[in-house]
Specification:
Length: 272
């Protein structure tokens, strides 16, 4: 069961959701007075069980959904106050599922990420092509550059879509389950890349994840949602605790500490 929101807006918040409420149809709300804040240059992971509102929150942070109550601020300014097109130059969104762009190669798909920068005529410069190829390199997808997107596996396609977001060169990157189709090597490769974007380039990254241990291994901040509310927010050590996780997931868990990284990880306990 959800408890009271314990995550007030921080004074240094770069991306903030303030008291969000939303329902897709009249009736049961998906978000209930949800408040969350992420400082600039931080990697935050949003956790929670299926149907708790994680994807809805992410879509509101990029302006794809409008809350019935509350607002989202970017750099202190409400999203609705930004001129048309300016959000796309500052915020990139990687959805959980992306349909293959029929007839386009991986390189052409990544180049689409440059559209907020190409102007009304849409002509790509040499700098746009360089940004696209560099994004392919950083996501280990260079070898797919000339392959049709629909011919790639789900995991390969996901990395190309992440490359498209990188080519956009945004300040903020929002990702919905970015490693759901990836093997263990590429799961850590993507989160390692997100970690570098934060520490080396000052990007602000918010990722939805079902993998508690993977999120705890890389994130600066974790936000745990249940029934449309924030029930816990803080460092991995503050959130990855049995007394916090077990009531939300309705599953007994054991939390241990990695001897190398010092980060917590989760082991579900089998039923007795």
């Amino acid at each position: 069961m959800a408890t009271e929101n314990r995550n007030p807006i921080a004074g240094d918040a770069y991306l903030a959701a303030e008291g969000l409420a939303f329902a897709y149809t009249p009736g049961e709300p998906v978000l209930r007075n949800l408040t969350v804040a992420v400082a600039r240059g931080r990697l935050a992971c949003v956790l929670g069980p299926n149907g708790c509102g994680k994807t809805t929150l992410l879509r509101m942070l990029v302006g794809l959904l409008v809350p019935s109550r509350g607002r989202v601020r970017l750099a202190g300014t409400p999203l609705e106050a930004y001129p048309p097109g300016s959000i796309a130059r500052r915020v990139a969104y990687v959805p959980q599922e992306t349909l293959a762009a029929v007839g386009f190669t991986a390189l052409e798909t990544v180049l689409m990420g440059r559209s907020p920068h190409t102007g009304a005529l849409g002509f790509e410069s040499s700098g746009d092509w360089h940004a696209a190829r560099e994004a392919l390199r950083r996501t280990d997808t260079e070898r797919f550059a000339q392959r049709s997107l629909e011919d790639l596996s789900g995991g390969e396609r996901q990395r190309v879509i992440i490359a498209r977001a990188l080519a956009q060169e945004p300040d903020v990157i929002l990702l919905d389950e970015p490693t759901s189709f990836l093997d263990i090597r590429h799961q850590h490769g993507i989160y390692g890349l997100l970690r570098r974007l934060v520490t080396e380039e000052g990007k602000t990254v918010v990722a939805v994840s079902h993998d508690l241990s993977l999120a705890a291994a890389y994130a600066d901040r974790l936000v745990l949602i249940d029934e449309g509310r924030v029930v816990a927010a803080g460092t991995p050590d503050e959130v990855i605790r049995p007394e916090v996780l077990s009531p939300v997931y309705e599953t007994a868990v054991e939390v241990r500490t990695d001897e190398v990284t010092g980060r917590p990880y989760v082991l579900p306990r089998p039923p007795a």
